[in-house]
Amino acid sequence: MTETKITFNDLGLPEFILNAVTDMGFESPSPIQQACIPHLLAGQDVLGMAQTGSGKTAAFSLPLLAQIEPQKKMPQMLVMAPTRELAIQVADACEQFMKYAKGINIVTLYGGQRYDIQLRALKQGAQVVVGTPGRILDHLRRNTLDLSELKFIVLDEADEMLRMGFIDDVETVMAALPEQHQTALFSATMPEPIRRITKRFMNNPQEVKIQSNQKNAPDITQSCWYVRGFRKNEALLRFLEVEEFDAAIIFARTKTATLDITELLEKHGFRAAALNGDMTQQLREQTLDRLRNGSLDILVATDVAARGLDVERISLVVNYDIPLDAESYVHRIGRTGRAGRAGRALLFVEPRENRLLKNIERLTKKPIDEVEVPNREALQACRRKNFVTKITKQLEHHDLELYRSLLEDLFTADQDQEDIAAAMLMLLQGKQKLILPPDPTIDKRAGRERNRRENPRSAERRGYGTPQLMDLYRIEVGRLDGVEVRHIVGAVANEGDIDSRYIGHIKLYDNYSTIELPQGMPKELVAHFTKTRVMNKPMQMSLLGEAKNEGRGGEKRFVGKTKGRNSDSRTGDRKFREKKHRTFDDSGFKPHSKRKKY
Known about the structure:
This protein is of the alpha/beta class and 598 residues long. The protein folds into three domains: 8-209, Rossmann fold, CATH 3.40.50.300; 219-376, P-loop containing nucleotide triphosphate hydrolases (Rossmann fold), CATH 3.40.50.300; 470-576, Alpha-Beta Plaits (2-Layer Sandwich), CATH 3.30.70.330.
């Protein structure tokens, strides 16, 4: 029996939406669109569980935008996203969906953009607002965003907002909404804090769960290289030279590393640029535009800077530094294999990082095959092929006659023509040497097999119950300065590019606070934190000593009545046994002054 194919025309969307969808080349709805659109058109709350790339933006945008009233110049639809990049993408999609609707204004609110630009857009009467939780909350507190007429609220990638520490801001915004409104929440996973939000703020939501299947799963080939025989920089250059890719993104753990790797790649002829938290929003957008239009081929980014990044050209992801948690790896490699294209993901694994690799394989339920660095023969073959291609293209030109006369001066009786041609090849090869020295001898046991043989019971002995060793630091800001735990977390996470999950117990006192951070932090980073300002006051961070595990579940000092980031997640109840956590020295986070100069 032939199955009837559902089209967008069958879902009850208005004609102006259908025309826009047709212009965008959409033919039939994805599973999540087919499931969500009827519920949202019927006025029901929707709880959607689906991975990135499943089409969830259209799943909530199409039915809710169809119900916007153009004559009302007040915000009627609010979309909260974890990153400014995702917010911009959602707003751009809404603009395309509403191309045939008149009188609809869409504004994007995110940090890094001047307030006056956003205020002008809001005063023009925006019916649709898309933004990040922090900036939306700022506008609410300034009374520059009026949500009294709001009809629809969407939480996009709610688990990412939780992971990035925005859940308090989300709940504060949700509590400020009119009693009568429709809610759509989308999340790849459903941790308990997200469940609590659904119970508190949603009205009998219709649950839509789309399982990723092999047919719809991204086509991503994954492999790993154990760091041995070559430095990571040299190996990276070899992989990039031999790999065939359209565009690539390289993930590093620190902002400094993104700059160093970018400098290395540029010196070797690659069109590369860094993407990190120190960049202005304007420069970030210019960099991404260059990647999209083909004037840039490689991005070197941190996890935080790359969140929400969606560029179809990316066909290769290189994890120069292995992520400290498996979920970040999944988000990283999700930048490739999009729009039906095949993707490739490469992971560099240091000798002491086997546990992290196992965590990734356990989460993805797939073994990651080990590969070797392209050897001398592969590199020479690639370079010679490219060299021959250049010569062949040059032979197709018709202006070579001008140079033939020069050969007469070279070709003399006492000079062999092949010797002259060989000398020319030496001159033309430049930095890309066509003949390479032998590769170093490599200990083949340096990978996971040697790790198992030499320490067969290490996994059982160490186990997940081993907590991260932490140091206790004092900072000279406290409750009387108006500081909250979230301010300290934000400053440390952003300035040090440290994932907030690796920040331990924080206690607030009247004139100072204490914070637990992983052992092995470079002195340069501590010095940087000393100058970092919280509530317009320098932290003046100083080391008190090793944090004691016992008694960490004791007194909890917090500002305000909010929970979440300001309570359990910053107390001794915080569990570091879900994943392997290592010191900064183990993870490769080393002082810049001791880093190898490229």
